[in-house]
């Protein structure tokens, strides 16, 4: 007997990793994830609300209005956050968002989101340290390092535990994967294989599965 179909509307909120930058298929990991669920028979509507370069400070003033416009309170909906790499970036004049401020921003967003819809949090991904720093299209030199991002990841994970929000530790999942650096288009943004790899990890995550799979 086939499993019943689940109808779900989901907003994915974050930065260029969420947006799918580096993925020539133009799907990004949220698109690959949701496409796989549709192939499995579920009815999904997804909104990719990733903006390149966004930090938690950029997400804070925009996320709630964008989610409210897309996720009706009366329907089965979910919110997925994915940010942190830009917060932890050294842009020569200092860290873009210091860890304490990043945690403060995350607390405000995640607490409010949890009161609206089921909320999940996907942590930042590892970069290829050997290809850092990067120069942006605007000419900004931005240095992202795994050791620094790991500190943010630990802080995020502790906050998620406190708020009782499921947290997917992508750093731990990928940092020792020898294939991962080769899945990065520029040392930061995943190429298509990298986004598919992320989608596979999220798709197998129990917290995500609970949104879709009937008991």
Descriptive notes:
The protein is an alpha/beta fold. The protein has a single domain, classed as SGNH hydrolase (Rossmann fold). The chain is 41% helix and 15% strand. The protein has nine helices and seven strands; from the N terminus they run βααβααβαβββαβααα. Strands 2-1-3-4-7 form a five-stranded parallel sheet, sandwiched between helices. It has a two-stranded antiparallel sheet with strand order 5-6. Strand 3, helix 5 and strand 4 form a beta-alpha-beta unit. Helix 2 packs across helix 8 (192-204). It starts with 6 loop residues before the first strand and ends with a helix.
Radius of gyration: 17 Å
CATH topology: Rossmann fold
- The CATH superfamily is SGNH hydrolase
Order of the strands making up the biggest sheet? 2-1-3-4-7
Number of domains: 1
Rounded to the nearest angstrom, the distance between the terminal CA atoms is 14 Å
Average the pLDDT over all residues and give the rounded result. Answer: 96
Strand composition percent: 5-15%
CATH architecture: 3-Layer(aba) Sandwich
Q: What is the N-to-C order of secondary-structure elements (H for helix, E for strand)?
A: EHHEHHEHEEEHEHHH
Fraction of helical residues? 40-55%
Which residues form runs of ≥5 with pLDDT under 50? Answer: none
What is the CATH class? Alpha Beta
Structural class: alpha/beta
Largest sheet: 5 strands, parallel
Shape: globular
């Amino acid at each position: 007997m086939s499993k019943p179909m689940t109808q779900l509307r989901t907003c994915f909120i974050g930065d260029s990793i969420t947006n799918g930058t580096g993925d020539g298929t133009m799907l990004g990991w949220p698109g690959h994830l949701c496409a796989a669920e549709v192939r499995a028979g579920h009815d999904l509507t997804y909104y990719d609300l990733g903006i390149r370069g966004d930090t938690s400070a950029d997400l804070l003033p925009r996320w709630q209005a964008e989610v409210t416009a897309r996720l009706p309170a009366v329907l089965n909906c979910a919110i997925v956050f994915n940010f942190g790499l830009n917060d932890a970036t050294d842009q020569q004049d200092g860290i873009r968002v210091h860890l304490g401020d990043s945690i403060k921003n995350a607390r405000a967003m995640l607490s409010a989101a949890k009161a609206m819809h089921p909320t999940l949090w996907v942590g930042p991904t590892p970069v290829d340290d050997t290809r850092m720093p990067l120069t942006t299209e605007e000419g900004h030199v931005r240095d992202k390092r795994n050791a620094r991002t790991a500190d943010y990841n630990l802080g995020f994970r502790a906050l998620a535990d406190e708020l009782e929000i499921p947290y997917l530790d992508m750093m731990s999942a990928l940092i020792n994967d020898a294939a991962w650096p080769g899945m990065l288009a520029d040392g930061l943004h995943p190429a298509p294989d990298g986004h598919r790899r992320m989608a596979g990890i999220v798709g197998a995550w129990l917290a995500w599965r609970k949104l879709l799979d009937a008991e």
